[in-house]
Amino acid sequence: MRAVRLSVVTAAATAAALAAVTGCTEKSDAKNGDAIQVTAADAKCDTSVKSVPAGQVTLKIENKGSKATEVEILFPDDRIVSEKENIGPGTKYTLTAEVKAGSYQIACRPGMKGLGVRQKLTVTGGKVARRDPRLDKAVAAYREYAQEQADATIPKVQTFADAIKAGDLEAAKKAFAPSRVGWERTEPIAESFGDIDPKTDTRADGLEKGQKWTGWHALEKSLWQDKKIGAEQKTLADQLVTDLKDWQKRVGKAEITPTSMANGAKELLDEVATGKVTGEEDRYSHTDLSDFKANVEGAQKAYELLKPVAEQNDKALTTNLDKQFTALDTLLDKYRTDKTSDGFVSYDTLTKAQTKELSDGVNALAEPLSKLAAAVVK
Amino acid sequence: MTNAQDSTEGTEDTGPAAGGSAPSRRSLIGWGGAGLALGAAVAGGAVAMTRTGNDVDPAGSDTSGPVPFHGTHQAGIATPVQDRLHFAAFDVKTDDRAAFVQLLKDWTRAAARMTAGHTVGDGAYGGLAEAPPDDTGEALGLSPSRLTLTIGFGPSLFDKFDLADRRPDALVDLPQFPGDNLDKSRSNGDLCIQACADDPQVAVHAIRNLARIGFGTVAIRWSQLGFGKTSSTTPDAQTPRNLMGFKDGTRNIAGTETDRLKKFVWVGDGDGSDWMTGGSYLVARRIRMNIETWDRTSLQEQEDVFGRDKGEGAPVGKAKEHDEPFLKAMKPDAHVRLAHPDANHGATILRRGYSFTDGTDGLGRLEAGLFFLAYQRDVRKGFIPVQRSLARTDALNEYIQHVSSALFAVPPGVRDKDDWWGRTLFSKEA
Is B73 in contact with B258 (CB distance < 8 Å)? Predict the structure, then answer.
């Protein structure tokens, strides 16, 4: 898990950097004269221009309505090119995006709900935005994968919760790591919702003032450090199941793009690099290697789905990524408790040299993986 | 031009010198005279050389310009010592020889760009929005700061890639010296990069970017930051002081002393491994100082320990720093007496060390000392005999401890833009 604030930023950044688009909300070289004035209100969405040349498009948005609004540039099939949420009543915002030729819509969504009020926008000249059916397929397959992972998680987390409610400390400990695998494989999606991750996967030091500590790690501390299960833990277990069912329900609606898949894969390795390889994530149970493996598997899934396109654009990169995924898998296999189970040795049994080797392996994979998004959109 | 090899090799890349115009007299001043056109300058050293014809104050005052990357010898050895250091030792993580050679080529290209003050690859911004920039960006807007990048190959590298028969005899395993307390996790390494610059950010940027390019092929094993050079290759300039407050590097080999460089620093033809001709051997030792007990030591004791006075740096019984020391006037266990070439059958090394301070050690003691770097033609005739003599009886041992150690074969220079670090080792035809 990462800090909430960061999750939100990440989600926004991936939403802005879509396949056919270079999301760019900070570039300063937009000419004022080119800007499209967007006047949003509770029931209207007026745009000053209906047609612009391809390239950088600037939206000068003013919300004259009574509710916070959201303004989006959309492809005809409703995929988002670029968006800005939460533009408060009476406030202004400048949104810029790199847009290729084609037909688009500008949508204002007062209250940030529903389809919103829409205006057509034609982008002329330059390169035509073309969708790659292989990438559409990859996104669809990844969405399916994310749903499968969430579906498979529910019974496992139920087993974990049941053991806690039965007061069975050992059974609960045993069910802890497996209950996290599906989540860890698809973590960037869960984090993109913003509100689920803080409830389920926050660590003690990630709590904001006044925030109640709920979720896996609160239970982890009870089981391993306090070694007790009380009424409080039973409530937390129920809560965890409820929160994860919410996640299960929403996974299908997650904003997924080829770029966010690629960046999500890299983020999974970032999770490993900052939290798991240091033993910080599961500091009481020391089941970090199980999370580690799940993160790598999730990254590999996203990569495999994007590979046909990435390979065509950057063969050297995919050759290297294949090699590095294999190398890291081989390295992790050394730490399985036995060759047939999914269990891993306790993180605190690793020597410093072993964690260094794992860290080197993560860097070796994450560095080329950071170039995957570029290879996909090239 | 006593060194014919040097004088012919360097001309392609040292710019103005190639045109045949002799450096102006003023441009030689900072270098101590006419020795300039030889080894050191050709090694890619001279700021002065790039300014030939411009009547400007040469080396010394200009600490911002680039140091030529190409030359017979690698820059960063005999070239003027910069103020800051970032030294990194790497482990090789691949058994794929072609991948490692490709890394050496990629590194060479990046090193040539960075030492010239350019960014790595396509730069730090302006590229694809979806991709991380090639360059990390923290050196944008900074001058080249005389950055030099120097590569070395450790003994363990020769166990890989079928290189065992190319390991030079001179690249021995260093013996265990009395008093050594070595931390293996920050000793040795398959290879090293020494980054020196006058701006620490420039040196750190260079190692960071090379490490990044290397992920998957190599991994940083350990690294050390250094400040306040503790010796000089331009001994006519003010001799710097170490953290004990004493001048260090008096009588060090100067970058202009072609004959001494040739005799003591550069590996010559017939020294045993042809691929090393023009190279050198580097010893790196992290020497922790017991700063607090040293500071409680009387001035007399401090001066006796070194065999020099603290103010001027003059040897015992002499008036000036550069006066010839009379060793017998010093205490038998004085540092200078034991380290002096006369006490070691003439053993002479080129020192290029830096002070380091890595905060405090958890006991409130300064985690500080000397990061000792010494270049020599053969460690068996350089560092080893000197350190044997020091480790046994040096009075300074009470105040210092060697905590990390490494030895590297530093190959010759990269000759031109088509050449690359380690070519003479890895190319069969070389």
Answer: no
Other residues' Cβ atoms within 10 Å of the Cβ of residue A155: 10
| pLDDT tens-place string over residues B149-163 | 999 999 999 999 999
**Closest by CA position to B154, among listed B96, B194, B118, B126:** B194
For residue B9, count CB atoms less than 10 angstroms from its CB and return exposed for 0-12, middle for 13-18, buried for 19 or more: buried
Q: How far is CA A203 from the centre of its chain?
A: 18
- Rounded to whole angstroms, how far apart are CA atoms B170 and B298? 41
Whether B130 sits inside 8 A of A367 (CB atoms) is no
The string of pLDDT tens digits covering residues B77-125 is 999 999 999 999 999 999 999 999 999 999 999 999 999 999 999 999 9
C-beta of residue A266 within 8 angstroms of C-beta of residue A374: no
Contact B409, B153 (CB under 8 A): yes
Write down the architecture of domain A11-124 according to CATH. Answer: Sandwich (2.60)
Sign, Cα dihedral of A260, A262, A264, A267? negative
* Closest CA of chain A from B110, distance in Å: 17
Structure tokens at B77: 């050895």
ipTM given for this complex: 0.78
Q: Which CATH superfamily groups domain A133-376?
A: M75 peptidase, HXXE motif (1.20.1420.20)
B322, B335 Cβ separation under 8 angstroms? no
Residues from chain B that touch A360, judged by Cβ atoms under 8 A, are 91, 93, 219
Contact between chains at B219 and A363 (C-beta distance less than 8 A): yes
| Distance of alpha carbon B290 from alpha carbon B301, whole angstroms | 15
Cβ pair A10, A188 in contact under 8 A: yes
What is d(CA B237, CA B231) in angstroms, rounded to the nearest whole number?
11
Residues in chain B within 8 Å Cβ distance of A370? 131-132
Topology match between the domains A11-124 and A133-376: no
| CA atoms of A249 and A193, how far apart (whole Å) | 12
Q: What residues contact residue A4 under an 8 Å CB cut-off, 6+ apart?
A: A194, A197, A198, A206, A208
Q: Judge: A367–B131 Cβ closer than 8 Å, yes or no.
A: no
> CA–CA separation, A179 vs A185, rounded Å?
12
Chain A residues near any Cβ of chain B (below 8 Å): 17, 22-24, 98, 259, 262-263, 320, 324, 352-353, 356, 360, 363-368, 370-371, 373-374, 376-378
What ranges do the domains of chain A cover? 11-124, 133-376
For A161-191, write each residue's pLDDT tens digit.
Answer: 999 999 999 999 999 999 999 999 999 898 8
Q: Are A111 and A67 in contact (CB under 8 A)?
A: yes
If phi over 0 gives left and psi between -120 and 50 gives alpha, with beta otherwise, what is residue A35? Answer: beta
Q: Which of B158, B149, B214 is nearest to B408 (CA)?
A: B158
Q: Which of A68, A356, A14, A9 is nearest to A194 (CA)?
A: A9
| Four-point Cα dihedral B406, B407, B409, B415, nearest 10 | 50
Between the two ends of chain B, the Cα-to-Cα distance in Å is 26
Strand stretches in chain A, DSSP E: 22-23, 36-40, 45-47, 51-53, 55-63, 69-74, 80-87, 92-99, 102-108, 117-124
Contacting A with CB below 8 Å, chain B residues are: 91, 93, 128-132, 185, 212, 215-217, 219
Choose the closest CB to B93 out of A98, A259, A364. Answer: A364
pTM: 0.79
Of B372, B412, B368, B418, nearest to B391 by C-alpha is B372
**Token pair in block for residue A127:** 């390169």
Nearest CB among A24, A324, A370 relative to B129 is that of A24
